[in-house]
Structures are given as structure tokens and as C-alpha cells.
User: Which sequence fits this backbone?
């Protein structure tokens, strides 16, 4: 259905122009084609992504199971400890209750009339009703639809309407740490249910109003969380998958226009400020070891000739195990930050991916549209690989060669977000990957 609609939308303007062109001079054809490729196609595809979301179809069970198995006993079975997006903030109004499942857990998420979002286990500690299905917000608590016990955001029963006795001290269900992060409701998930190990970084430009929210977009893909971090250190895939310029929001390649990448990757730690580096301020501020950074200085070539002045740099901050990622694009007339979240479903090999973007208040919106559209196009180029690949956990180390990028470092980096059993044999990488032929 979508294909037929696409064809109709793509072809009708062309047929219209051919008929019109028979009656007017050639120059109009140039105007038309420029408009068609520069505005019409990106805008149409933006609307398709935005309105219909185009989630990837759920993959067949056998293939999903086989791919998931390749991630091993730990990565294939438990989620990384970290902050995960539950919903966009605007999807939970005061008094709303939502049932949300992710990474094998089920939540009753509700917003009290005081405006604060809270999250507790979906199933009532009394006789197991689902609090989120039929439950009601009373003040800052949630009332169970079955026998009307109420629970606060800490999971404690605060009222048992038909009982005059004292509320038992064990009338308490599991609660979760929640934070609202620039329009996203985030929940902290830890295998041992312990307190957050790290906090999401403050974005100064959002706080002081220099940058404002522009738009957002969500979709679903069949991908494991580890792949995003690994992608950032897999330098050898940049030219084959991201080496060509595409029309924003589409996979349509612009002929002759290629992108030359100069990638770099670092784990977050205190670094000396380098005044000449566009990214120095951010690095200095982000000193914790719960982040890693990917930098790309890229420029364009037209039929193999470098285009002067076409270079641009981007910094990607991977927070935790990539459940939250920020992309910072700097231009002479303003900056853009894309906040991207990855939230695995119950199957750790399918996830919700959400993009929410912010721009300098004065930046022209069509430029924001183009830059974000380009990023989303480039991101889409990875999907075919992610959705069909396995994770090479064994043999250790994987066969890497000079030029592959610091994948041994990113594999060590992700390990700190997993809680391994004390039995070391369950550690997926007892011997961290090494690469004798690599210079990393
Ligand atoms: S099951 Fe919730 S109050 Fe009884
Ligand atoms: Fe990629």
C-alpha cells in the first residue's frame, strides 16, 4: 500500500511537469527539478517518517533467536544498566496512567496532579491486578482498580479503604527512579535494582534558552543496543555505508557527491582544554567515565574533487551503553543537538529509536531540517546491516585488521554497564578483544 502511495506521489509531479513542459520553455524544467529534489522529496519523506513511522517489520522468530543467541549469555539476556526512555513527556499528562513494557519489565507509569511522573511495578502487591489497566491517579498516588489500595511513587501502600487495621509494612511494591530529560521520561534500570550509577548530563543551552526544541520522530527497528556503540568505533564502515550524500530523510543518493570522513573516538575522561578544538568545551565538562565520544570531521567531494569550505564537524556523545546519545552539529549560524534514545523491548533485539532535536533559537528552520534529515538518512544506511547481523563474540579476539578502528576499546567500554555474575565464566569477554594487527 505504502509502495503504491509512494509511486503515485513521486510520479504525479513528474507527469504533470512533462505535460506542462510541452508548452513552456526549458528553463522551467530546471526550476521544477530543483524544487522536486530539494524540497518536495525531502518534505514528503519527512512526513512519511513522521506520520507513519515506518517501523521495521518484526523479524521472524527463528532468525531473531539465532541473532540474539550470538550476543551470548549476558548481552543476549539482560539489558545494560542505564537510563531508558519510557515515553515522551507530553504523552503523559497530569492524571494519566500508562502501562509500559521494556527490557523484560512491566511498569505502571503515572503522573500525579502535582505534575510529577512516577513509576512502579505494574502488578499490585495485593492480589496481582495490573495497576496501569484501569488504575486511577488520586493526588500523587495510583489507585488499584481491583480492591482500591493506593500506592505512592515509592511503591508504598498509602490507603486500604476497607481495612481499619494498620497498613502492613510489607505492602510495598517495586518502584523505579524516574527523571524527565528535556522532553523524555527516563527510567533507571539496573539488574540489581540499585540506585543510578550516573546522571544524564545537563544541556546548558537548553536550560538558558539559547536552543529550543524543534521536532521529534520515533520508529522501531530490529537491533541490539551494543551495535550503536560498536558502530561508532567501526571506522572501516564509514566509506561504504556513509560515504555518499543522500537527499535528506531518504536513502536516495545524490550522484557524484561523496562524503569524506575523518573519525575519532574517545572514552570520557578529563582532558586538557585545546582552544583550537571545536569540541574542547564539551570534553572538559564531561569528565565521567560513563560516556564516550565519537567525532567526525567530514567534507564533500564532487566527482572526486574536494569542495572547498564544505567541511563540517560533529560530536556524538554516547551516554552509558547508548540508551541515550546526543549529536552536536556546529555551523557558523547556529548549533543543532539531536537527542537520540534507544529503548529495547522485551526482546533485546528489537528497540524503539527516538530522535528529538533542538536548535539555536535564531537558526533558519530549513537548515535544521536539512542537517537533521541528513543525519537520519545516514543512520538509516546502517539499519540493513544491524537488522541482519550477528555479534561476533567468539572467537576471541574477533579477526580485526589495521584500519578497523578501536573496537577493542568500545567492547571494553560497554562491559562496565553490565552486571556480571560472580562466576567469571559468565563474563562474555573474559579476555577483552585485542588486535595485534591494529594500531589501537
Ligand atoms: S489487587 Fe490491587 S488492591 Fe487488590
Ligand atoms: Fe554507521
Assistant:
Amino acid at each position: 500500500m505504502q509502495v503504491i502511495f509512494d509511486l503515485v506521489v513521486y510520479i504525479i509531479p513528474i507527469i504533470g511537469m512533462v505535460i506542462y513542459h510541452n508548452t513552456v520553455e526549458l528553463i522551467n524544467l530546471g526550476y521544477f527539478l530543483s524544487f522536486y529534489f530539494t524540497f518536495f522529496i525531502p518534505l514528503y519523506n519527512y512526513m512519511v517518517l513522521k506520520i507513519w513511522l515506518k517501523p521495521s517489520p518484526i523479524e521472524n522468530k527463528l532468525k531473531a533467536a539465532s541473532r540474539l543467541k550470538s550476543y551470548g549469555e549476558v548481552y543476549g539476556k539482560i539489558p545494560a544498566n542505564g537510563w531508558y526512555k519510557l515515553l515522551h513527556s507530553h504523552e503523559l499528562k497530569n492524571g494519566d496512567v500508562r502501562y509500559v513494557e521494556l527490557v523484560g519489565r512491566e511498569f505502571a507509569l503515572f503522573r500525579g496532579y502535582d505534575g510529577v511522573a512516577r513509576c512502579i511495578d505494574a502488578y499490585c502487591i495485593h492480589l496481582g491486578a495490573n495497576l496501569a489497566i484501569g488504575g486511577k491517579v488520586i493526588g500523587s498516588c495510583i489507585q488499584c482498580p481491583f480492591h482500591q489500595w493506593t500506592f505512592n511513587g515509592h511503591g508504598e501502600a498509602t490507603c486500604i479503604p476497607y481495612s481499619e487495621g494498620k497498613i502492613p509494612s510489607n505492602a510495598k511494591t517495586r518502584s523505579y527512579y524516574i527523571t524527565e530529560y528535556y522532553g523524555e521520561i527516563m527510567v533507571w534500570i539496573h539488574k540489581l535494582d540499585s540506585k543510578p550509577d550516573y546522571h544524564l548530563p545537563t544541556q546548558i543551552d537548553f536550560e538558558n534558552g539559547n536552543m529550543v526544541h524543534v521536532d521529534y520522530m520515533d520508529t522501531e527497528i530490529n537491533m541490539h543496543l551494543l551495535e550503536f556503540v560498536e558502530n561508532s568505533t567501526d571506522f572501516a564502515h564509514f566509506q561504504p555505508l556513509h560515504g555518499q550524500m543522500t537527499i535528506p530523510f531518504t536513502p536516495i543518493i545524490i550522484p557524484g557527491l561523496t562524503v569524506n570522513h575523518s573519525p575519532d573516538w574517545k572514552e570520557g575522561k578529563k582532558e586538557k582544554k585545546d582552544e583550537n578544538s571545536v569540541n574542547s568545551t564539551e570534553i572538559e565538562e564531561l569528565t565521567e567515565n560513563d560516556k564516550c565520544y565519537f567525532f567526525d570531521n567530514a567534507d564533500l567531494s564532487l566527482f572526486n574533487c574536494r569542495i572547498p569550505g564544505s567541511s563540517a564537524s560533529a560530536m556524538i556523545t554516547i551516554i552509558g551503553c547508548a540508551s541515550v546519545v546526543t549529536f552536536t552539529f556546529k555551523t557558523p549560524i547556529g548549533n543543532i543537538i539531536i537527542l537520540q534514545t534507544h529503548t529495547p523491548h522485551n526482546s533485546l533485539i528489537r528497540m524503539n529509536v527516538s530522535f528529538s532535536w533542538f536548535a539555536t533559537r535564531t537558526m533558519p528552520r530549513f537548515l535544521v531540517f536539512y542537517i537533521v534529515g541528513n543525519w537520519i538518512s545516514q543512520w538509516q544506511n546502517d539499519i540493513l546491516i544491524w537488522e541482519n547481523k550477528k555479534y561476533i563474540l567468539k572467537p576471541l579476539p574477533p579477526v580485526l585488521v589495521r584500519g578497523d578502528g578501536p573496537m577493542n576499546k568500545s567492547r571494553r567500554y560497554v562491559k562496565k554497564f553490565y552486571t556480571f555474575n560472580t562466576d567469571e565464566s559468565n563474563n562474555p569477554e573474559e579476555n577483552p578483544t585485542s588486535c595485534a594487527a591494529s594500531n589501537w
User: Anything to note?
Assistant: The chain has three domains: 1-51, 82-189, 201-415. The pocket of fe (ii) ion (ligand 2) is lined by residues 231, 237, 241-242, 382 (CB under 6 Å). Residues 147 and 160 are 8 Å apart (CA to CA).
